[in-house]
Amino acid sequence: MYMPDFEYHAPGTMAEACKLLAELGGKAVILAGGTDVLHKMKQGKMTPEHLVSLKNLDELRSIRYEAGRGVVIGSLATHNNLYTSELLQNKYLSIPMAAHSMASNQIRNMGTVGGNIVNGVPSADLPPILIALNSTIRLVSASGERSMALEEFFHGSAQTAIAPGEILADITIPDQAATGSTYMKFGLRRSGALAVAGVAVTVIIDGDIVRGARIVLSSAAPTVMRARDAEESLKNKKVSEKLLADAGAMAAASSRPRDSIRGSAEYRRNLVEVLTKRALDRAITKGHS
Ligand SMILES: Cc1cc2nc3c(=O)[nH]c(=O)nc-3n(C[C@H](O)[C@H](O)[C@H](O)COP(=O)(O)OP(=O)(O)OC[C@H]3O[C@@H](n4cnc5c(N)ncnc54)[C@H](O)[C@@H]3O)c2cc1C
């Protein structure tokens, strides 16, 4: 497994990085933590002539709160940065927990939230909880910047809305009414395994009434997806075992999983049903967890 030849660039500013990407066009690939890019290059699945590393763009590393905007996570924040962020632990513990559910410590030290999103794979662990929390993303290029709901970014397996030359700069979690959120996944090992199926939820609880819910599934369709019928079924209803079980069954019915080496479609559908019920119960009883 030899690395093919390539030219390495490490621009010092966002403006330089955007200019370079515009000049190099399709010959360049962005490098963040490299856990996917370098692996694919070694396997010969990717042969870029140029790698443009974002490692010197320190402004993309911060995790901060901005009044009027919400929690802003720079795209270069690693999974372990998310896990150890006091801000996230205090506000949305579900994100550090999702980050900690991934891979090994070595991969969590290198892999970034930006790479996890831009990869666009349906088993990625961070998009579901970020979508459940209604996040938006900011994409920057030589021709300007644009923002969109993270939910709209994913078009299919490994297909996203990112345009050539665009850098995912940051992710914003707006201030919100959700009283609880959580991400639950099932992997073939207790830790360090990709999700056979995963479910992220947010809930707005008022006494014992569900005022709103968002349910987002991973590894349950060609791309991360909302289970909207299940969400609707919970609105303004009193919390009960049956209500949550019915929502789980509806989420499973709306999923479109595939058979793969990690699990059959039927197995995944069963997992979605169980995980949705459990995740709703945890978000209702334990808040952001
Ligand atoms: C052994 C192993 C285990 C893994 N386990 C898991 C797991 O349990 N759960 C999981 O979800 N993933 C897992 N992964 C996948 C991977 O580690 C993560 O998706 C990681 O977050 C990718 O981030 P990165 O910074 O390493 O991306 P890179 O490899 O640097 O980049 C990935 C892709 O995103 C693009 N990109 C990266 N950052 C940006 C940006 N800011 N703007 C625009 N484009 C960008 C790159 O050009 C490339 O196409 C695993 C990988 C390995 C090798």
What do these coordinates show?
This protein is 34% helix and 26% strand. It is α+β, with helices and mostly antiparallel strands and 289 residues long. The chain folds into 3 domains: 7-53, Uridine Diphospho-n-acetylenolpyruvylglucosamine Reductase, domain 2; 58-173, Uridine Diphospho-n-acetylenolpyruvylglucosamine Reductase, domain 3; 180-286, CO dehydrogenase flavoprotein, C-terminal domain (Enolase-like, domain 1, 2-Layer Sandwich), CATH 3.30.390.50. Strands 4-5-10-6-7 form a 5-stranded antiparallel β-sheet. A hairpin with a 2-residue loop joins strand 6 and strand 7 (144-149). Helix 9 (228-234) runs antiparallel to helix 10 (241-254) and helix 10 packs antiparallel against helix 11 (265-286). It is globular. It starts with 6 loop residues before the first strand and ends with a helix. The site of flavin-adenine dinucleotide has 28 residues, from strand 2, helix 2, helix 6, helix 7 and strand 10.
